[in-house]
Amino acid sequence: MKTLNDLKKYSCEQRPGLAERLQARRPRLKVVEALVKLRRMYSLSQRALAERAGIPQPTVARLESMSEDRIQTTEKIVEYAEACGVHVGLVFVAKDDDQCAILETVSLSDDEAVRHFMADLPNAVEARQINGPNSNGGSRQATV
Asked: Model pTM greater than 0.85?
């Protein structure tokens, strides 16, 4: 029986340019995976999340879609996350060899406590020397 990786490799060999298209879509896939994981973490159906966000259920489905024509706006991603009861922030990281440093953080929330947390995150991470994933493969959490 072939694995998914075998199938992907075969498909890329048979379809010129597919590997490049898949690589270009990786950032979007990561966002989609995070959105679906977040919704499931809070045991929300697409319909329930849509009701909380005040948006149609097909909009939630489109946010979770990987279709080329489904590039979503930051605003919709923020609405999705806030409907789950969480806030969105961006972290810009520089990597040099095995060391990472937070260059900039951006809070996409209107909540003042979240904005302060995001602003303090680089100092908190540096002070606690939080590097890389924790032992269970997830990301570490910082409390500021």
From this structure: no
Q: Which CATH class is domain 4-83?
A: mainly alpha
Query: For strand 99-107 and strand 89-96, is the pairing parallel, antiparallel, or unpaired?
Result: antiparallel
Main-chain dihedrals φ then ψ at residue 106, nearest 5 degrees: -135, 125
Residue-level pLDDT at 127: 63
Whole-angstrom distance, CA of residue 14 vs CA of residue 88: 39
Q: Which tokens is 17 given?
A: 């340019």
Task: Give the separation between CA 102 and CA 122, rounded to whole angstroms.
Answer: 6
For the chain, the structural domain boundaries read 4-83, 87-144
∠ CA(78), CA(53), CA(80), 5° rounding? 30
pLDDT above 50 (res 133): no
